Every structure is written in structure tokens, then in C-alpha cells.
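User: What would this chain look like folded?
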Amino acid sequence: MNTLYKISIGFVLTIGSLNIQAQQAPMYTHYMNNTLVVNPAYAGSRDALTVTAINRMQWVDFEGAPVTQSLTMHSPLSNEHMGIGLSVLNDKIGPTNTTSLVFDYAYRFNLNEKSKMAFGLSVGANLFQANLSALELDVQNDPVFLNNINNHVTPNIGFGAYYSRERFYAGFSIPNLLETSYSEIDQGNGTSLIGKEQRHYFFIAGALFHVTENLDFKPTSYVKMTVGAPVEADLTASFIIQKRFLLGAMFRTGDAVGGLIGFDITDQLHLGYSYDWSFGLQTFRYNKGSHELVLRYDFLLNNKQIHSPRYF
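Assistant: Here's the prediction, encoded as C-alpha cells.
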């Protein structure tokens, strides 16, 4: 097995050794446009039927690198206190592939004239596959890699809380409360766990500051925590020019730096692109950076005028 693919397997397989624990959640540079994926309490918060698609190609030219697509849609209900959402995710890393389908429900209420609070629940399922037999191994007949994992379905539920004002938001969520196992092996004297889904904890926050009439400053943050792995934080600083153009820079602890651009083509349609360059874990030697594309559209409900611009 060549050196590059050894490194790839080391990163992508959380099932590659006994009792291993690591960050498993997909990575997004446009996390601020993909809030529903990590926090069900966000459902319906834009007061429109919002559809968002993201495609991420991570570590270009790195063998077995992650490729992730997500499609989310959410909307308020006729009862203004309720919102619903749907998320579809496909995440491919090396020989593994995870497809998720999640339904979200949020209950929102006013704390005062300027701020709202929402609590959300999600329920869904993950379809996990791993073509382990296709790998070339240094150690033959390793019991961990002898059998493929085919169409392994695991249920999950999640919880989130989301606080928002016109120019500030903050949230906490646990999208996967259940820690279900991927696979197990029989070692003769008992069954041994190879790998399982790890519970992740997410913290998000963002704000908007008016600098001049045609310039706004938008800092955002995204923190991921799980047992047995370092805390990872994305810190992003963006400038919004003339209410339509976005230009920003990001820093991901221990991993990457990068830039974002975005454009509100209309009051309802947003297009964005980001590039980030890895500097951690020695991966920068073997890849040409990560590309991400986001497209979002707000469908108006009952001829209601959308509040423009919407910053969160």
C-alpha cells in the first residue's frame, strides 16, 4: 500500500482500529449557510421556504479524500411558532460512504420584541457502507478489514436550541444523540466493537456590525466537540459590500485557512464559493486545497415579502 493511501486510510476510517474515537461529522466552510444540518432549531427561521445545496470537494488530488453533498430545505408552518425541515447528506471518504436523511421540527417563541428562542428535535437514519475488501493491506487477514459493511442502517435523534436577534445568533445542538455501532467482529471468546457513531456537540454564533451605509462586518464561529478528539473551531470574518457582495476569510484550528466569496444574485438567490488550504496533519503535502460551492434560494410564502437582506 503506497504512503499516500496509508495516510488516507488513517484519516478516513474511524473503524480502522479498536475503540478509536475521532471527529466524524462532515466539514463545511459555508457552515453559516448550512445551519440546519447541525441544529434542528433553525428550521423555519428565515420565514420562507429555504432550499440550500452545498458541494464540498476536500483535499483535491488526495487519494480517498472526502467528498460531501448536502441538500436542506426548511419552512415555517401556518402556525408562526413552528418550523419544519428536511436534510439529505451524502459523505464519501475513501472506501466508506454515509447517506443520511433527517427530518427536523422547531418550536419558536418571542423572548421580547427583538429576540427569539427556538428549540428543535430531529429524527432520521444513516445508511453506512464500507468496501473494506478493496483495500491493499500491509498486514494480510486483518479481521477488521475482512468483511465489507453493506447498507448498514442506524437510526438517530437530535436536539438543538437557537437564539436569534436581527444582528446576532447563537446555538447549541447535539444532532446525533445515539451512539450506534457500525460493525462488530467475533473473536471467538466474545464480540468486539470495531467502530461506532460518536456523539458530537456543536456551538454556533454570529453577529453583524454596520461599518458604513454600504459596508457590514459579519463574524461567525462554529465549534465542534466530541470525546477523544481535539476541540475544532471555525472562525470566519466576512465583509458584506453594498448589501449583496460577500468577501471573507476563515481559520480552522489545527487544519486550514481559506477565503469565501458570495453574491446575492437576487433578494432570493445566493451563490457562494470558498477555497481552503490545509496546513495541519501533514495533509498539505499531498493535496491542492478544498473547494466548496453553495446555492441557496428563498421561496416566498403567501406572497409575503422577504426581509432583505437576510444575514442569518
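The chain has one domain: 3-299. If you want, I can go into more detail on any region.
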